[in-house]
Amino acid sequence: MTTLIVGGNGVTGSQVVEQLLIRNQEVRIIVRSAEKLPQSWKDHDNLKIIEASILNMEKATLSNHLSGCNAVVSCLGHNMSLKGIFGPPQKLVTDAIRKLCHGLNEQESSNRPIKFILMNSAGHRNQNEVISLGHKIALYIIRNLLPPHRDNECAASFLRDNIGPDNHSIEYVVVRPDTLINEEKVSDYSVFPSPTRSAIFNPGKTSRINVGHFMAELLTDENLWTQWKGQMPVIYNKSAI
Ligand SMILES: NC(=O)c1ccc[n+]([C@@H]2O[C@H](COP(=O)([O-])OP(=O)(O)OC[C@H]3O[C@@H](n4cnc5c(N)ncnc54)[C@H](OP(=O)(O)O)[C@@H]3O)[C@@H](O)[C@H]2O)c1
């Protein structure tokens, strides 16, 4: 199976790459700069590194890179600097996944349906999830003050509302971790259809390697994929529940 990853050089994205390579999967990553990537990645037979900006890439070029892919993963996120948070592109994630889905729809591929995983956040409230009034007010303020949060919400909504859970071409899972932490090893984690705690007032923790592990399992375990496709699972480290 071949998976194209955007944001694959990010702290979480790189865990997804590693977890897929451990499973002997073919991986392609689109990164703005390959300079800081580990030499082991540059030498890896199963990893193709494409140095380009996803948002500026010509449609035909993207189409070439998508050709033969069975899955796409986005671990894109705004850099945590003033420029990354408030500067352009404010719709980084939404525009990138829209472009990728458009490219996938145009593929003359026999690999359908193509799996699409979007890294999102437990701070994003999916339709009809019950939250307190205080949480609603805080979300309203965050949404209007912080473009990256708005972008995350729009990206997830795009998959839910424009691709939809019954699409024959693209199947999606939106993975929602809570506060991200770094750990060396995969640990026990739990996955729920919706948050089990307030991401604002009582956040849980999710290690990035566990996100990588869950995404890789989704892509390689058909039963797990069937269980979560068309949904927005929330993942917590077990030690944080
Ligand atoms: N922090 C949390 O607690 C938390 C919790 C839940 C969810 N999340 C979500 O998870 C996302 C990923 O987290 P992370 O810690 O793995 O992020 P990260 O290490 O900052 O990775 C972000 C990725 O996005 C890429 N990127 C940024 N701006 C770009 C642009 N303009 N064009 C193309 N690529 C661009 C980066 O590439 P470059 O190296 O080229 O910049 C990098 O590959 C966050 O941004 C957030 O939306 C975060």
What this model shows, in words?
By secondary structure, this protein is α/β, with parallel strands linked by helices. The protein is 39% helix and 20% strand. The chain contains nine helices and ten strands. It has helices at residues 11-22, 39-42, 59-66, 82-86, 92-105, 133-145, 147-163, 208-220, 222-228, and strands at 2-6, 26-31, 47-51, 71-74, 114-119, 170-177, 179-181, 189-192, 205-207, 234-237. Helix 1 (11-22) packs across helix 8, helix 5 runs parallel beside helix 7 (147-163) and helix 8 crosses helix 9 (222-228). The longest helix is centred in the middle third of the chain and has 17 residues, at 147-163. Bound molecules: NADP nicotinamide-adenine-dinucleotide phosphate.
CATH superfamily: NAD(P)-binding Rossmann-like Domain
Order of helices and strands: EHEHEHEHHEHHEEEEHHE
Alpha carbon gyration radius: 17 Å
Strand numbers in spatial order across the main sheet? 3-2-1-4-5-6-10-8
Q: What's the N-to-C terminus distance? A: 34 Å
Q: Percent helix among the residues?
A: 25-40%
Bound molecules: NADP nicotinamide-adenine-dinucleotide phosphate
CATH architecture descriptor:
3-Layer(aba) Sandwich
| Largest sheet data | 8 strands, mixed
Note the overall shape: globular
Please indicate the percent range of residues in DSSP E strands (runs of 2 or more). Answer: 15-25%
Q: What's the number of structural domains?
A: 1
The CATH C-level class name: Alpha Beta
Helical run tally: 9
**Which residues form runs of ≥5 with pLDDT under 50?**
none
- The helix-and-strand class reads alpha/beta
Q: What is the strand tally? A: 10
Average the pLDDT over all residues and give the rounded result: 95
CATH fold-level topology: Rossmann fold
